[in-house]
Write a structure and sequence with these properties.
9 helices
């Protein structure tokens, strides 16, 4: 919506400027019209950067820099009408000189800011690629294990429990074979969205690979972990994925759980191995179930 409005405003500004030249208004009037046109063009990016809650400090700084230019252009438009020829492009009027000097500095600093913003955006995209799984939008294997290690270390000092889940979608290969990999991807996305919505903000949720996922619940004992796991299992069991007019896919999950009060010898690899054993027990015992390591 904003982009469309900006394009329309740009087109109107260009038309107005050309009309001002063709109709041979006085130079002061033409300067005022051009200043107002630039004000219209600048107001949209300034508004977006200042009002967007997700704007970075750099984006807000650039917005304030251009806001200063915005105010200068308002003064310039007023002077163009009030002072007439004294603000012409070739005038050596002190206001005219100061205006162009300030506008030059604002444009210079603003352009540097835009270059830095482009780099900031590129860095954020690289960080996102290195942190999140491209398909499901949750933590990838590397990031999950890194953050899980930090939690194990933290809760070993606190002497509080953590629970580690290893989750696998049952018979996922059959879904791919029957409906195709695109349908399989839809199932993975649906599963990730539904599970993530059931977890707390500080719980860790990651995709280890293929149809295998992991969850780390900090400060959660075995009884609480079992309740969470059962809730996740039921949600998956009730889920449906529409992959066409006549094709609705249902899926289930198996979960292996280990709960410990970690110490300095506890490693995430050990938790993974123990929960993996529990997961395979769930598979052997019929799938769509939970196994807890005692």
């Amino acid at each position: 919506m904003i982009k469309r409005a900006y394009v329309i405003a740009s087109a109107i500004s260009i038309v107005v400027i050309h009309l001002a030249i063709l109709l041979q208004y006085t130079e002061g009037v033409r300067i005022s019209i051009m200043s107002i046109s630039m004000i219209i063009l600048w107001c949209f990016p300034i508004y977006v950067f200042l009002m967007d809650k997700n704007s970075s400090v750099l984006q807000k700084t650039v917005a304030f820099i251009y806001l200063a230019g915005f105010i200068l252009l308002i003064l310039r438009a007023y002077m163009g009408i009030g002072l007439r020829e004294s603000v012409s492009l070739m005038s050596n009027n002190i206001y005219n000189v100061l205006f162009f000097l300030c506008l030059y500095l604002i444009m210079l600093i603003g352009n540097i800011g835009f270059i830095l913003m482009a780099k900031e955006k590129s860095d954020l995209e690289l960080t996102k690629v290195a942190t999140y799984d491209e398909l499901t939008g949750i933590f990838n294997r590397r990031e999950f294990l890194l953050r899980a290690k930090e939690n194990v270390s933290l809760f070993s000092r606190r002497k509080e429990p953590i629970s580690f889940f290893l989750i696998d979608l049952d018979n996922f290969k059959k879904i791919n074979d029957i409906y195709g990999h695109f349908a399989g991807d839809m199932v993975l996305k649906d599963f990730a969205v539904k599970i993530k919505s059931q977890l707390r903000d500080y719980d860790l949720f990651g995709r280890i690979g293929g149809e295998e996922f992991t969850v780390l619940l900090p400060g959660t004992n075995e009884k609480e972990a079992l309740e969470v796991a059962e809730r996740l299992r039921r949600i998956a069991e009730k889920a449906t994925v529409n992959v066409g007019r006549d094709h609705i896919i249902k899926y289930t999950i198996s979960i292996g759980i280990v709960t410990v009060i970690p110490d300095e010898h506890t490693s995430i690899n050990t938790l993974y191995k123990i929960s993996d054993d529990a997961l395979y027990a769930a598979k052997r015992n019929g799938r769509n179930r939970i196994e807890v390591v005692k």
